[in-house]
Amino acid sequence: MAKSAVRLEENFRGRADDFYEALIRAHQGLSDAESHTLNARLVLILANHIGDLEALEEAIALARGSIEPTEPDAPAQAR
């Protein structure tokens, strides 16, 4: 089996809850649209920081694989 390009084991050095709290605080007071914009910007900033296309594509596949579409035939923007 090929080695994963994505680190799946905990890597927050015991501070995962601190990250989660910071993420939740960043969304406080935002509309749904603003929260989506924040998430998109954060993803792009972190993707640029990572800079490894193989790891990013693997992470996208892992994240996408964990979601079951509600309307498989609907265009993405219509959901």
Distance between the termini: 36 Å
Helix content range: 55-70%
**Rg (CA only):** 15 Å
Estimate the mean pLDDT confidence: 90
Oligomer: single chain
Q: Number of helical runs?
A: 3
Characterization of this structure:
With 79 residues, the protein is mainly α. It contains three helices and no strands. The chain is globular. It starts with 15 loop residues before the first helix and ends in a 14-residue tail after the last helix.
Summarize this, please?
The chain is mostly helical and 79 residues long. Helices cover 56% and strands 0% of the residues.
Core attributes:
single chain, 79 residues, mainly alpha
Secondary structure: elements and pairs:
Layout: H1 16-27, H2 32-50, H3 53-65
